[in-house]
Amino acid sequence: MTIDEFQRMIAAGEPLEGEEMIAFMREQSRQARRLLAELNGPFRTDEEICRLFSRITGRETDPSFRLFPPFYTDFGKNIHVGRNVFINSCCQFQDQGGIFIGDDCLIGHSVVMATLDHGFRPADRQNLYHSPIVLGKGVWIGAHATILRGVTIGDHAVVAAGAVVTKDVPANTVAGGVPARPLRRIESD
After folding, report:
1. Is residue 73 within 8 Å of residue 92, measured between CB atoms?
2. Which of 33, 64, 121, 128 has its CA at 20 to 30 Å from residue 187's CA atom?
3. pTM greater than 0.90 (yes/no)
C-alpha cells in the first residue's frame, strides 16, 4: 500500500482493517518515530523544526510555522497545516483520519487530537474507524484540550483549556467543559 492509496481510502471513508493495513500503519509509525526522535532530541532552530515537520507530514510546511518540541504523532502523513500556525510543546496528534489546521491557529501545551476509534463490538475491536478533525482560521486551542474525530472547529473559535471536544464548535464561539459545550460568543472586531 502507498500513501496515495491510503489517502484515497481515507477520503472514501473506508474503515482501516486487515493485515495489509496493520502492516502499512506499523511501517508508517516506525518512520514517524524515527523522524520524531530527530525532532525531539537535540536543540533545533525554527528552520530545522520546519524542515523536519515537512518530512514528518510529507509536504512542504510554510516558513511561518512554529512548533515547540517535543511533539508526537503515530502517523504524520495526514497532518495539514496552514500559514502562521503555532503548536506548543507535548502535543499528540493521531492523524490517520486527517488533521487540517487553518491559517493563524494557536495550539496550546499537551493538546490531543484523535481521529481514530476502534470498533465497539468485540469482534470489531481491532478495526479502526476514522473521521477528520478540522480547525478553521484563527482557532485557539487551550492547553490539555482533547479534540475527537469528526470535529470541526469554526473560524476564530476558542477551546478552553482541558476541554474534551466531541461535537463541532461554531465560528466565533468559546467552548469548554467535559464534554465541551458553547460558553459564549466572541464579538467580531
Report:
1. yes
2. 64
3. yes
Could you confirm whether 118 is annotated as catalytic?
Answer: yes
Contact assessment for residue 156 and residue 138, using Cβ atoms and an 8 Å cutoff:
yes
pLDDT class of 189 with cuts at 50, 70, 90: low
- Return mean pLDDT, the chain: 94
pLDDT value, residue 4? 87
Give, in order, the Cα–Cα distances in Å from 1 to each of 9, 27, 134: 11, 11, 26
pLDDT at residue 78 is higher than 70: yes
Q: What is the DSSP letter of 160?
A: -
**Per the omega criterion (within 30 degrees of 0), is the bond before 179 cis?**
yes
Residue type (1 letter), 152: T
For residue 10, count other CB atoms closer than 10 A to its CB.
18
Cell of 31: 518512520
What CA–CA distance (Å, rounded) separates 155 from 16?
30
Core vs surface per residue 130-143: b (16+ CB within 10 A) or e:
bbbbbbbbbbbbbb
Q: For residue 56, which of 43, 64, 69 has the smallest C-alpha distance?
A: 69
Distance between CA atoms of residues 86 and 73, nearest Å? 16
Instruction: Name every residue whose Cβ is closer than 8 Å to that of residue 12 and which is 6 or more positions away in sequence.
Output: none
